[in-house]
Design a protein that fits this description.
Elements: E1 43-46, H1 48-51, H2 57-60, H3 64-70, E2 74-77, H4 111-123, E3 127-132, E4 136-138, H5 142-146, E5 169-171, H6 177-194, E6 198-201, H7 209-220, E7 226-229, E8 243-245, H8 247-257, H9 263-276, E9 282-285, H10 290-296, H11 299-303, H12 307-316, E10 320-324, H13 349-363, E11 376-379, E12 387-394, E13 397-404
Parallel strand pairs: 1-2, 1-10, 2-3, 3-6, 6-7, 7-8, 8-9, 9-10
Antiparallel strand pairs: 4-5, 11-12, 12-13
Helix pairs in contact: 6-7, 8-9, 12-13
Length: 421
């Protein structure tokens, strides 16, 4: 497998990023009104079970000042609800097999513990979203007894899994409008009761879009919320969601890291982004998350020594950068999804790189999210198959970056007058 060698890794030097005075041409915006605090935000995914030896809200709290210092704005908790026991996968089960939408997994603590954690996050000037699984539940979810009509049934009247491999969960039936009311009520509960700031919505495209549109209206009546869809479909940005997953970019980076594709694939992907997504839509950029790490491998398995360069890349192009639990510590193992598998915390250069990148994003409008930031303008080089160079501009800032995404040393020439100033 071809990977990027040390000699070809991006030399990330602040002096290579130049800031100038420039004006910005306004662009058409998405229909969704983003919370004002999200305009230059970054996001961090918390795998609470694996974060500490205890795996609790209370034990996680000691890491909050460090996350704030690193430049994190949004704390995204994987599902915090009780996990089903019937047809459970592994010993501890999947976070995404929810037994009760209005309760806390006792593995993590109590709802009072969670409220305290949310308050501490808010006191540090950060925000909280929690994972929400609206498409399915565990086989022993409380609704199975109280509202069996909420679930899909086969020709024999039996519940079934939405996907064959998901044998620990059963499908919800959104033809039943009473389900819409109950699910919206549960979504409102966590905002009203615990003061969270929004949701990351699991397999959002498998749930009717109109449900999300209506739910967003109801949630925004309580407070301006931030909604992240675990999906890539552009139509989800129309009314319901602030941000979607940029899996397509992640896949392209994986292929380049393995030497199977080059920068031309990245150019093609970014071109399609402009064609497919409305102006103002946030896209979440990442090289790893809980799924990617557990099922497809660590960033080092997939990207080799290019992991550093791609982290800088996804943090500076258009979109909001995501960091997964342990990524800042150079996480180099696949975390077990259904068992206890504590992250090995250590000093690693990634933490300081992330801190610099997040500071750069916050202090330079050119790197802000959606139309709050500057449009990426590709710069011609003497080797556009291997060198990716761009400029982003917005009002008083201009950021210039160059990446060698090959496994060779290349003397680079930028063929543009845009970097002059």
């Amino acid at each position: 497998m071809t990977t990027l060698r040390k000699s070809s890794k991006l030399c990330f030097i602040i002096s290579c990023l130049f800031i100038y005075l420039f004006s910005n041409i306004s662009a058409q915006k998405s229909e969704v009104i983003h919370p004002g605090w999200s305009k230059n935000a970054t996001i961090y995914e918390v795998n609470l079970r694996q974060y500490t030896k205890e795996g609790t809200f209370k034990s996680f709290e000691k890491y909050l000042p460090g996350l704030k210092e690193m430049g994190v704005d949004i704390i995204w908790f994987m599902p915090i609800h009780p996990i089903g026991e019937v047809n459970r996968k592994g010993t501890l089960g999947s976070y995404y097999s929810v037994k009760d939408f209005k309760a806390v997994n006792p593995e993590f603590g109590t709802i009072e513990d969670f409220k305290q954690t949310v308050k501490k996050i808010h006191d540090l000037g950060m925000y909280v979203i929690i994972d929400w699984v609206a498409n399915h539940t565990s086989w022993d979810n409380v609704w199975v007894e109280t509202n069996p009509e909420f679930f899909s049934k086969d020709s024999l009247g039996k519940f079934y899994a939405p996907v064959p491999d998901w044998h620990d969960v059963i499908d919800l039936n959104y033809d039943n409008k009473e389900l819409w009311k109950a699910m919206t009520d549960a979504l409102k509960f966590w905002i009203e009761e615990c003061d969270i700031d929004g949701y990351r919505c699991d397999v959002a495209a498998m749930v009717p879009t109109e449900f999300w549109n209506q739910a967003r209206i109801e949630l925004d009546k309580i407070k301006p919320v931030f909604m992240l869809a675990e999906a890539h479909e552009p139509y989800l940005h129309e009314k319901a969601f602030d941000m979607t997953f940029n899996w397509q970019l992640k896949d392209v980076m994986n292929e380049i890291g393995k030497g199977k594709k080059n920068v031309e694939a990245l150019d093609a992907r970014l071109k399609k982004e402009k064609e497919e997504y409305p102006a103002g839509a946030y896209r979440m950029n990442f090289t790893t998350n809980h799924d990617e790490n557990s099922w497809n491998g660590t960033v080092f398995e997939r990207l080799g020594e290019g992991a550093e360069a791609f982290m800088v890349l996804f943090s500076t192009i258009e979109g909001m950068p995501l960091i997964y639990s342990g990524q800042e510590a150079g996480l180099n193992k696949r975390l077990n999804f259904f068992e206890k598998d504590t992250i090995e915390w250590r000093e690693h250069k990634f933490r300081n790189i992330i801190k610099k990148l997040f500071h750069l994003k916050k202090t330079n409008k050119a790197l802000w999210n959606g139309t709050f930031g500057g449009e990426l303008v590709r710069l011609k080089t003497n080797d556009d198959k291997n060198i990716f160079a761009f400029i982003r501009e917005k009002e008083n800032s201009k950021v210039f970056a160059v990446f060698n995404l090959s496994d060779q040393k290349i003397n680079t020439e930028i063929k543009s007058n845009l970097i002059k100033g």
